[in-house]
C-alpha cells in the first residue's frame, strides 16, 4: 500500500471540549453571556475563498443560531489546524475537531469507501448523491462510527472534478510520462495518477505552490476552486481538464464527541451539515466557468483533452483493490436507477 506520512503535527493547539453537564441542554445561552457548553474546531486545507469555507461559515452560523450559541464552532482554513489526516486522527482520539475528508483518505479506516474516489466513476453530483443516500453507503457510515470512532455528519460536500495543473499541456497520458504530480496521499489517488503515466507525489496542499515554483514537483491535480484559491496560476501555465476524479468529501467528527452532544444538538448539526454541503456544492458547480475565466485572465491556458485514452489507462485501477470491481458494479446499478 502506498502511503506518505503527514508533514505537520498538530501539537497542543487542539482543545478537548468537555461534555455539556448541567441542568439544561443549553445552559450557556439561558443564563446569557455564558461560555458555550460544547465547542467544535473545523480544520480544512483550502483557503477562505473556497466554496467549502463559505459552506462551513453557513454551517457555523446556523448551528450557533439554533443552539443559542451553546455549541460554538470555529473554522481553520489553509491547513492552520493541520492536514486532513491529522485532524481525522485527532477526532478519533476524542478531540473536539472535525474536517472535510475525502473518501480516499477515509479508506484507511473503511477500505471499501475509498472507491468513491475511483477514476471516472461518476459523471456528476447527482450520481454521487444517489450513492451517498444508498444502503451501501449507510453500511460504511455505520462501520466508521461503531468501529473507528468517526462520525459522518454529511457526505455531500462536492468540491469538483480534478484536473492536471502543470507547465506543459496534457493532451494524452503519454504527456504525463515521467512527471512528478502531487496528489492526495490515499491509495486510490496514487494508483490513479500512476495509471495515467505520472509519478504520484505526496505533499501537503500548503506545499504545492512552493513545490512547483522550486521544481520539487512538476505539477498537481486539483479542482478549480482549490487551484485558484492556492494561486497556482502564478507558478503553472496550464490546466488540462482530465476530469479524472470527482472529489466528494464529508464533514466528519469524532463519534465520541458527537454522542456526548444532547440529542437535539445531534439533530441540528447533521441537518445543518447536510444543508451547508448542498449550498457549498451548488456554489462549486455554478462557479466552474467563472474560475476558468479568472485563471485564464491570470495567464493560464485551459486544455480540453480527449478523455477516452485516460479512461482506458485507468480502467485497471479497480483491480488493485479488494472487492472494488464488484462494488463498482453495485454503484453503477444505483446511479442508473
UniProtKB/TrEMBL annotation:
<keyword id="KW-0732">Signal</keyword>
<dbReference type="InterPro" id="IPR038404">
    <property type="entry name" value="TRAP_DctP_sf"/>
</dbReference>
<keyword id="KW-0675">Receptor</keyword>
<dbReference type="GO" id="GO:0030288">
    <property type="term" value="C:outer membrane-bounded periplasmic space"/>
</dbReference>
<protein>
    <submittedName>
        <fullName>Tripartite ATP-independent transporter DctP family solute receptor</fullName>
    </submittedName>
</protein>
<dbReference type="InterPro" id="IPR018389">
    <property type="entry name" value="DctP_fam"/>
</dbReference>
<feature type="signal peptide">
    <location>
        <begin position="1"/>
        <end position="17"/>
    </location>
</feature>
<dbReference type="Pfam" id="PF03480">
    <property type="entry name" value="DctP"/>
</dbReference>
<dbReference type="GO" id="GO:0055085">
    <property type="term" value="P:transmembrane transport"/>
</dbReference>
<dbReference type="InterPro" id="IPR004682">
    <property type="entry name" value="TRAP_DctP"/>
</dbReference>
Amino acid at each position: 500500500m502506498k502511503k506518505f506520512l503527514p508533514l505537520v503535527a498538530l501539537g497542543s493547539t487542539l482543545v478537548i471540549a468537555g461534555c455539556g453537564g448541567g441542568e439544561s441542554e443549553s445552559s450557556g445561552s439561558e443564563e446569557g453571556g455564558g461560555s458555550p457548553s460544547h465547542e467544535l474546531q473545523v480544520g480544512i486545507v483550502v483557503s477562505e475563498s473556497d466554496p467549502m469555507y463559505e459552506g462551513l461559515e453557513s454551517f457555523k452560523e446556523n448551528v450557533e443560531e439554533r443552539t443559542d450559541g451553546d455549541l460554538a464552532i470555529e473554522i481553520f482554513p489553509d491547513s492552520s489546524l493541520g492536514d486532513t489526516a491529522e485532524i481525522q486522527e485527532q477526532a478519533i482520539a476524542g478531540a473536539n475537531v472535525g474536517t472535510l475528508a475525502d473518501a480516499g483518505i477515509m479508506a484507511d479506516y473503511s477500505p471499501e469507501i475509498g472507491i468513491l474516489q475511483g477514476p471516472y466513476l461518476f459523471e456528476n453530483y447527482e450520481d454521487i448523491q444517489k450513492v451517498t443516500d444508498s444502503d451501501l453507503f449507510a453500511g460504511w457510515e455505520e462501520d466508521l462510527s461503531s468501529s473507528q470512532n468517526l462520525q459522518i455528519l454529511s457526505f455531500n460536500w462536492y468540491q469538483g472534478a480534478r484536473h492536471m495543473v502543470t507547465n506543459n499541456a496534457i493532451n494524452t497520458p503519454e504527456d504525463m510520462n515521467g512527471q512528478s504530480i502531487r496528489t492526495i496521499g490515499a491509495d486510490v489517488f496514487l494508483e490513479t495518477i500512476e495509471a495515467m503515466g505520472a509519478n504520484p507525489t505526496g505533499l501537503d496542499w500548503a506545499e504545492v505552490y512552493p513545490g512547483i515554483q522550486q521544481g520539487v514537483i512538476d505539477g498537481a491535480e486539483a479542482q478549480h476552486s482549490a487551484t485558484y484559491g492556492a494561486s497556482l496560476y502564478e507558478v503553472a501555465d496550464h490546466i488540462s481538464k482530465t476530469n479524472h476524479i470527482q472529489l466528494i468529501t464529508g464533514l466528519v467528527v469524532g463519534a465520541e464527541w458527537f454522542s456526548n452532544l444532547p440529542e437535539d444538538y445531534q439533530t441540528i448539526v447533521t441537518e445543518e451539515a447536510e444543508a451547508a454541503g448542498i449550498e457549498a456544492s451548488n456554489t462549486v458547480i455554478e462557479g466552474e466557468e467563472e474560475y476558468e475565466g479568472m485563471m485564464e485572465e491570470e495567464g493560464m491556458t485551459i486544455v480540453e483533452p480527449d478523455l477516452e485514452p485516460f479512461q482506458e489507462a485507468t480502467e485497471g485501477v479497480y483491480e488493485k483493490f479488494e472487492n472494488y470491481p464488484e462494488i463498482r458494479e453495485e454503484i453503477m446499478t444505483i446511479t442508473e436507477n
